[in-house]
């Protein structure tokens, strides 16, 4: 455990951020899986699901959950 007060606070904030990022990452992964499944099944709402997934991926970059290259790779994978 840390001896320095600021480091103790930093540990707490890092844990909060980790939990928030994990939740958001899980949401993005789920939406990507749904979009890919709809794409495979050729559903009529696949465009809506793909757009929603792309929107979440873009939000994840602005929040710092994903790096820009990973986001670009995921979006490319959805679009192809």
Explain what you see.
The protein has a domain at 45-80. The protein has 80 residues and is mainly alpha-helical. It has helices at 5-41, 46-63, 68-79. The chain is 84% helix and 0% strand. Helix 1 packs antiparallel against helix 2 and helix 2 packs antiparallel against helix 3. The protein has three helices and no strands. It starts with a helix and ends with a helix.
Strand and helix map with partners:
Layout: H1 5-41, H2 46-63, H3 68-79
Helix pairs in contact: 1-2, 2-3
Short description:
This protein is mainly α and 80 residues long. It is built from three helices and no strands.
Order of helices and strands: HHH
Please provide the count of β strands: 0
Largest sheet: none
Estimated share of beta-strand residues: under 5%
Helix content: over 70%
Assign the structural class, choosing from mainly alpha, mainly beta, alpha/beta, alpha+beta, or little secondary structure.
Answer: mainly alpha
Count of discrete alpha- or pi-helical segments spanning 4 or more residues: 3
Estimated radius of gyration: 17 Å
Give the overall average pLDDT. Answer: 93
User: What low-confidence regions span 5 or more consecutive residues with pLDDT below 50?
Assistant: none
Calculate the terminal CA-CA distance, rounded to whole Å: 48 Å
**Global morphology:** elongated
